[in-house]
Specification:
Distance between the termini of chain B: 17 Å
Order of helices and strands of chain B: EHEHHEHEHHHHEEEHEHEHEHEE
Shape of chain A: globular
Number of strands of chain B: 12
Distance between the termini of chain A: 60 Å
Shape of chain B: globular
Structural class of chain B: alpha/beta
Strand content of chain B: 15-25%
CATH superfamily of one domain in chain B: Thiolase/Chalcone synthase
CATH architecture of one domain in chain B: 3-Layer(aba) Sandwich
Helix content of chain A: under 10%
Largest interface: B-C, 61 and 64 residues
Number of domains of chain A: 1
Number of helices of chain A: 2
CATH class of one domain in chain B: Alpha Beta
Structural class of chain A: mainly beta
Chains: A mainly beta (161), B alpha/beta (349), C alpha/beta (385)
Number of helices of chain B: 12
Radius of gyration of chain A: 19 Å
Strand order of the largest sheet of chain B: 3-2-4-7-1-8-12-11-9-10
Helix content of chain B: 25-40%
Oligomer: heterotrimer
CATH topology of one domain in chain B: Peroxisomal Thiolase, Chain A, domain 1
Largest sheet of chain B: 10 strands, mixed
Chain lengths: 161, 349, 385
């Protein structure tokens, strides 16, 4: 008699995900090709994407403003290992971008750049989907690409490492 | 043992909240901290309870730290359990002498997924989960066993529901409340025999938070601090076939260890998501007819899963603070069919 | 601190990619029974149980400690389930010790485990919400940019990480429980391994393992009755900070530094480099060794890499680190933190066999989790505090 060593139980659960108010405003902005941030009334720092609260001060963030879609790469890594769920096919450069006007970087992907040229301090710009395809999702920004500006000074972004 | 008192409590509950978990939690934590009179930075320890699976995301509790203000860095821990057990961990921490106060919070949204189905994952993955017994059906098995063992009827269950909904009138956090007629309710179809819709917990999104302080300081912060005189929790084996479903042995033990009968019990907040479970718990804790059970309406009126147990403790504490009694019992449960239970004895100053 | 607490029993399972020979109950019992045997105790002698585990999606079971209650002899007892992300193993040990220090319990069993082969850990870590773009490929993808930032800040030579990996993998060969064992592992072999998330190579990365670790903490009274040498808990510390906020230092987080300060203050330690004999530190990617050496105050900021370079952290160095082979060699995520605590206690108790360091009186166990934001640490010694 053969022992049963394992069984496979497929699990499928559907969730209705609620973005919440702050993220909803941010995504609506993205659908219009605008990147919105929120400023904390206490520490005055600007959070992008807006999250409704400043984690440092534990207060709700209400003041909304638009930030540039140009920014600086503060740090990065080259992803070479494939995985389910990834939106891009490795190898690709995952970059932390500090947008001009924001005080916190967020992650996205760098394209139109050879992997060896990716470096800290690079100046980059968002490449958006065509206007007709914009929607309330971060994927409305297809990726970031390098722009012809001199690299940012290390001191200008070192506190974001 | 150090004397520890609850000095504040806050909660939020809605059938379907359009805010995300952090947005729901933040005002609740702020309210509890503000009402405590302790500046956030003076709170010694923070402990929370929540479940990743409710949110459908790993590390779901990490985002919740944003609501709390963990800067400068705090002494903090988290249990993948109802907030009542987070309170227990915090109480233990105070007993060690490492800290003198604690913020406890918990949150959960039941509306995003099909909660009864999600809870089927809380079972033995090899032999039970593949059958996908939803939570309501498991409770129904227990209800059937209870009715057969005690001779109680479906009418008795409906009466629990009617009384709970009536008590919930005026509770701003109740999702279900009002005057209902037992006979009319009994005409409704069963969801999972012998349970009907009124016997089940309402789907609720919510959060709860409270602040506890050790010793004399509690009196300086709160007009009538509520002392935790006893607290204990026990777990039973999960398998439905290996325990007596018509009684709650672990609640009996926890109640005895917590010292429920060392004094008169004025009111009790019992975490009974299903109507028959209130009757089981009453019996387990030896609570007579004179005890006011679930003056808030209980879990049948509002059930923010993962926060509901802490809410029982908070509701009981608020009533003692308001001098609606001097001594109370609060209870929390988790796991299928009252598998794990916590009992807390509270006394107003 | 309240009552004294001591480690009187330790048990580990053999760590492997897939422990297909046991179910989850079998896995946790393997560790728990070993700990009970080590302490010469029976299930009935345990007063309370603490279970630690990382996200439940790693096994596809919600709150598995519930169905495991009877497997762990917990029926009729208090049971707690801790979850503090990657640091959970450490937090589990601290909660268990707290239960004893509170004076409420005398013998507490804690078990931390992960049977991640039953689900898909990479998937569970990358599950994202709609509206977002999944660009971060697992933990490595999250930490690689931080490591790059450390290299930039410290000026550390690019091969520092390789040296850590070689050391830990050589140590693993002396640990009967270790998952990844590469006999004859060399520097060139690590360097030649595929680059996964630049600058992290395959052999500089932790594996995904199934496994469980169990420890028994006891009161002074019960420790006196125990057959083995107790490892006395001198201090425990937990600190957390938010994942992301403007201006956060993720490379040398304040929560990590404050945790270390709190730990040493409680243990009466003023010169950790000199007073601690060895350490088990949570290093899932090689570069975390130099980084945590700085955070834990063993080296000045920017100088941690020198400890690796000078051989200070080698098995025969002046502060051996990860004698067991560390997280790089075995990584059942929920258990990894407790394994650090267990291995530190084993050193104090003289139980570490081939990877035992001579003359250990005081050892440190460290765990971290989340986005380098949760820290749980403890110090054990062969004498009462």
């Amino acid at each position: 008699m053969e022992l049963v060593k394992s069984i496979v139980t497929p699990v499928s659960l559907d969730y209705d995900y609620v973005t919440g108010r702050a993220q909803s405003r941010f995504l609506r902005g993205i659908a219009e090709g605008r990147i919105l941030g929120q400023r904390c009334v206490e520490c005055r720092r600007v959070y992008v994407p807006s999250r409704g609260a400043c984690p440092r001060c534990a207060v709700p963030t209400e003041e909304e403003l638009q930030v540039s879609d140009k920014g600086t790469v503060t740090t990065f890594c080259i992803v070479r290992v494939p995985s389910e769920n990834l939106s891009f096919t490795p190898p690709y450069a995952c970059v932390a971008v500090l947008l001009d006007g924001a005080n916190i970087p967020f992650n996205h992907v760098l394209q139109e750049c050879s992997l060896e040229d990716v470096r800290m301090g690079m100046r980059v710009q968002a490449v958006w989907k065509p206007a007709a395809e914009l929607g309330p999702s971060m994927s409305s920004i297809r990726y970031f690409k390098p722009i012809a500006e001199p690299d940012a000074d290390y001191d200008s972004y070192k506190e974001h490492l | 043992m150090r004397d520890v008192a609850i000095v504040s409590f806050a909660q939020s509950a809605k059938a379907r909240d359009q805010r995300n978990e952090v947005e729901i939690l933040m005002p609740v934590v702020r309210e509890a901290v503000k009402a405590s009179g302790l500046p956030r930075t003076e709170i010694g320890f923070t402990c929370s309870g929540s479940s990743d699976y409710l949110q459908g995301q790993s590390f779901a509790f990490v985002g919740a730290l944003d609501a709390v203000g963990a800067w400068p860095p705090i002494k903090e821990s988290h249990v993948e359990m109802d907030g009542a057990w987070a309170l227990y961990e915090a109480w233990i921490k105070i007993q060690t002498g490492d800290v003198d106060s604690a913020l406890v919070y918990s949150f959960g949204k039941s509306s995003p997924g099909d909660i009864a189905e999600v809870l089927a994952l809380q079972l033995d993955p090899y032999t039970v989960t593949p059958l996908w017994p939803d939570a309501h059906s498991l409770a129904a098995l227990q209800a059937r066993a209870f009715l057969e063992a005690t001779g109680k009827s479906e009418r008795d269950l409906a009466e629990v529901a009617v009384r709970s909904r009536r008590s919930a009138i005026g509770n701003p956090h109740a999702v279900v409340s009002g005057e209902f007629d037992v006979a009319k309710l009994l005409l409704e179809p069963c969801v999972s025999s012998p349970l009907r819709a009124h016997d089940l917990p309402p789907v609720t999104d919510g959060a709860s938070a409270l602040v506890m302080v050790a010793g004399e300081r509690a009196r300086k912060l709160c007009a009538r601090p509520v002392w935790i005189r006893g607290i204990d929790h026990r777990i039973e084996p999960q398998g439905l076939g290996v325990r007596e479903l018509a009684r709650s042995a672990s609640t009996e033990i926890a109640g005895a260890k917590a010292g429920v009968h060392k004094g008169r019990v004025d009111l009790a907040e019992l975490h009974a998501p299903y109507s028959h479970q209130e009757l089981i718990l009453r019996a387990a804790l030896g609570l007579g007819e004179s005890v006011d059970v679930n003056p808030s309406g209980g879990a049948l009126a509002s059930h923010p899963l993962m926060a509901a147990g802490l809410v029982r403790i908070g509701e009981a504490a608020l009533r003692l603070m308001a001098r609606d009694g001097d001594r109370a019992v609060a209870h929390a449960t988790q796991g299928p069919c009252l598998q794990q239970n916590l009992v807390c004895v509270l006394e107003g100053d | 601190m309240g009552e004294r607490s001591a480690v009187i029993g330790i048990g580990q399972t053999k760590y492997d990619a897939k422990r297909i020979d046991v179910s989850m109950p079998g896995l946790v019992r393997e560790a728990a029974l070993a700990a009970l045997a080590d302490a010469d105790l029976r299930w009935q002698d345990i007063d309370a149980v603490v279970v630690g585990k990382a996200p439940d999606m790693f096994e596809g079971v919600m709150m598995p400690e519930l169905f495991l209650a009877d497997a762990l002899g917990a029926a009729g007892k208090p049971l707690l389930r801790v979850h503090t992300a990657g640091s959970v193993g450490g937090s589990t040990g601290i909660v268990a010790s707290s239960l004893v220090e509170s004076g409420v319990f005398e013998r507490v069993l804690c078990v931390a485990f992960e049977k991640q082969s039953e689900s898909n850990a990479m998937w569970a870590l990358t599950v994202s919400t709609p509206f977002s773009v999944a660009v971060i490929a697992g933990a490595g993808g999250y930490f690689a940019p931080l490591i790059r930032a450390y290299i930039r800040r410290s000026g550390a030579p690019e091969d520092t990480g390789i040296r850590v990996a070689v050391k830990d993998r050589q140590n693993a060969l002396k640990n009967p429980y270790a998952h990844v064992k590469i006999p004859g592992v060399t520097f060139d072999q690590v360097m030649a391994s595929p680059m996964l998330w630049d600058p992290i190579r395959y052999l500089e990365t932790c594996p995904s393992s199934d496994g469980a670790c169990a420890m028994i903490f006891a009161s002074e009274n019960k420790a006196a009755k125990s057959p083995g040498k107790p490892a006395w808990v001198h201090a425990t510390a937990m600190r957390s900070e938010p994942t992301m906020f403007a201006g956060r230092d993720q490379v040398n987080p304040l929560a990590g530094r404050m945790n270390a300060q709190d730990l040493y203050a409680k243990a009466g330690i003023t010169n950790p480099r000199r007073e601690i004999d060895c350490a088990e530190i949570y290093v899932p990617f090689s570069w975390f060794e130099p980084m945590w050496m700085e955070t834990m105050g063993f080296a000045e900021e920017g100088q941690g890499w020198k400890m690796t370079y000078e051989g200070a952290t080698a098995l025969d160095g002046d502060l051996p680190v990860n004698m067991s082979g560390g997280v790089l060699s075995s990584n059942p995520i929920g258990a990894s933190g407790l394994i650090r605590f267990a291995e530190a206690a084993m050193q104090v108790r003289g139980q570490a066999g081939e990877h035992q360091v001579d003359g250990v009186h005081k050892a440190l166990g460290h765990a971290y989790g989340g986005g380098s934001q949760y820290f749980s640490t403890y110090i054990v010694a062969d004498h009462k505090p």
